[in-house]
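Q: What residues go here?
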């Protein structure tokens, strides 16, 4: 499996974020992100935790390359919402997408609404 620097690059590309935007979401400079992806420097444990929290990334995938890139949202909670509010598949998709969005993406949605 890929090493940490390759997984960081893969994550950023999957999220379709530039180094600058990825770093901005984390409060980290573009040059720091570049250093991580080139293997010049390693992110701290705190930075790894922040990446996982900010982008809903599975920590085992990020550190070891094990499992899926993103953490699964507990299906039972969403199932309960769908049942309680009689939601259809499009409603479910909207909820799941919102929950997987970054903080800035959620803020954009809130501002739009």
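A:
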């Amino acid at each position: 499996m890929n090493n940490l620097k390759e997984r960081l690059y893969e994550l950023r590309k999957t999220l379709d974020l530039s180094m600058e935007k990825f770093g901005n979401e984390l409060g980290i400079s573009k040059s720091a992100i570049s250093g991580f992806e080139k293997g010049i420097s390693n992110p701290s444990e705190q930075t790894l935790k922040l990446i996982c929290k900010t982008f809903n990334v599975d920590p085992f995938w990020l550190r070891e390359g094990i499992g899926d890139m993103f953490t699964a949202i507990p299906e039972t909670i969403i199932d309960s919402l769908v049942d309680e509010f009689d939601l259809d598949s499009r409603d479910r998709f909207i909820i799941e997408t919102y929950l997987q969005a970054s903080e800035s993406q959620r803020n954009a949605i809130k501002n739009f609404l």
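A: Context that may help when evaluating the design: The mean pLDDT is 91. The chain has eight helices and no strands.
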